[in-house]
Design a protein that fits this description.
By secondary structure, the protein is α+β, with helices and mostly antiparallel strands. It has helices at about 10-30, 35-50, 55-60, 65-75, 100-120, 125-140; strands spanning about 50, 80-85, 90-95, 145, 145-150. A 3-stranded antiparallel β-sheet has the order 1-3-2. It has a two-stranded antiparallel ribbon with strand order 4-5. Strand 4 and strand 5 form a beta hairpin. Helix 1 (about 10-30) packs across helix 5 (about 100-120) and helix 3 crosses helix 4. The longest helix has 20 residues, at about 10-30. The chain is globular. It starts with 9 loop residues before the first helix and ends in a 20-residue tail after the last strand.
Length: about 170
């Protein structure tokens, strides 16, 4: 019989928690006619202003073909525009439309609500340890949230790291 110790599996706890956070975001955002993945696109656009489709896939840590379906639906629903880059016709530039502005604050409030639910009873000191630990784990895996880590940076940080991300 095969055995696996889920209690000691860091990956299991991270993936399981991530899945539950994603489900909670989908439930909150459904009232606005948008999914968590679509919200994530808008969050990155709020961070960057505009971004190429390939850069967006990289930021979201998903394959470009997976993103195409999300982008197609968002374009169809009027959330984003996709235009050919005048400097490189192979690239598509993604921008949020004016339709987003009136409901963006409500969408952000959905994320804040999910965050508040998720961290109930967790002391701030523990949250900071978790942020530092997850940041170090992400760096150990070769990337930080804002892009690839230069190869000379692939050493354990000597102090707390701060990364800013629109994704909560």
């Amino acid at each position: 019989m095969i055995r696996f110790d889920f209690e000691k599996s860091v990956g299991y706890w991270i993936f399981s928690t991530g899945h539950m956070l994603s489900r909670a975001m989908n439930e909150e955002l459904s009232a606005h006619g948008i999914t968590y993945r679509q919200w994530e696109v808008l969050a990155w656009l709020s961070y960057h202003g505009e971004i190429t489709q390939s850069e967006l896939a990289e930021q979201m840590r998903i394959e470009a073909p997976t993103l195409v379906g999300v982008i197609d639906r968002m374009e169809r629903d009027g959330w984003i525009t996709r235009e050919t880059d005048p400097c490189d016709r192979r690239k598509k530039i993604i921008r949020a439309t004016d339709k987003v502005q009136p409901v963006w604050e409500q969408m952000v409030n959905c994320a804040l609500s999910v965050r508040a639910r998720a961290i109930v009873g967790i002391p701030e000191e523990d949250l900071e340890v978790m942020r530092r630990t997850l940041s170090l784990m992400r760096d150990n895996m070769g990337e930080n949230v804002l892009g690839p880590v230069p190869t000379d940076a692939l050493v354990a940080p000597t102090g707390p790291t701060k990364a800013t991300t629109p994704i909560d």
